[in-house]
Design brief:
mainly alpha, 158 residues, single chain
Length: 158
C-alpha cells in the first residue's frame, strides 16, 4: 500500500484507511494472543534480526494496544473507502471498521477490569458510543466458494 502511487487526494485517504484497518487487525491479533497466553514478545516481536525477542508484560501491551486503537479510530475517514470488495469482513465499509475498533476496546476494558479498574472504566466509557449495537455489526469472515478462499473445514470434508 505504501508503495502504491496515489494520484488523487481520495486515493491517498483510501490508502491511509487501508493502513489503519491493517493496524486494527494487528491490534486484534495481539489482543487475542495476550488474552490467551499473557506475557508475549511484542516490542521486539517483528524484528527479523532478533531471534530471541524479549517478553513484554501483558498490561503494558494492552495499554499500547489501546493507544494504537485510539489513534486508529481517530484516523479513519468514514467519508472515503478502503479495500472495497476485497474486504471480506465489512466490504470496505470504514464506519464498520471504526465500530469494530471501538468494540475491541470495550472487550479489552472488560478484561482489564480485574487489573486496573480505572483504566477499564475509562476505556469502556470512551468506546461505548461507537461500538456494536447489534449482532448485524459483528465482524464475520465470509468464505468464498472458490479456492484458495474456501472454508478449510469444507475442503477437509470434501
Amino acid at each position: 500500500i505504501g508503495n502504491t502511487k496515489v494520484v488523487t487526494e481520495a486515493e491517498e485517504i483510501e490508502a491511509a484507511n487501508q493502513i489503519i484497518i491493517i493496524d486494527i487487525l494487528r491490534s486484534f491479533v495481539y489482543e487475542r494472543m495476550v488474552t490467551l497466553w499473557g506475557d508475549i514478545p511484542y516490542t521486539e516481536a517483528l524484528d527479523i534480526t532478533n531471534i530471541n525477542p524479549k517478553y513484554d508484560d501483558a498490561l503494558t501491551i494492552y495499554k499500547d494496544l489501546l493507544t494504537r486503537l485510539d489513534s486508529d479510530i481517530a484516523g479513519l475517514n468514514t467519508a472515503h473507502g478502503s479495500f472495497g470488495s476485497a474486504d471480506l469482513i465489512y466490504g470496505g465499509d470504514v464506519a464498520m471498521w471504526k465500530m469494530f475498533a471501538n468494540s475491541l476496546k470495550i472487550k479489552m476494558g472488560v478484561v482489564l477490569s480485574t487489573v486496573d479498574a480505572g483504566l477499564a472504566e475509562s476505556t469502556i466509557q470512551s468506546a461505548m458510543a461507537g461500538a456494536f449495537t447489534s449482532n448485524a455489526d459483528n465482524a464475520e469472515f465470509v468464505y468464498l466458494g472458490a479456492t484458495p478462499n474456501t472454508n478449510p473445514l469444507y475442503v477437509d470434508l470434501t
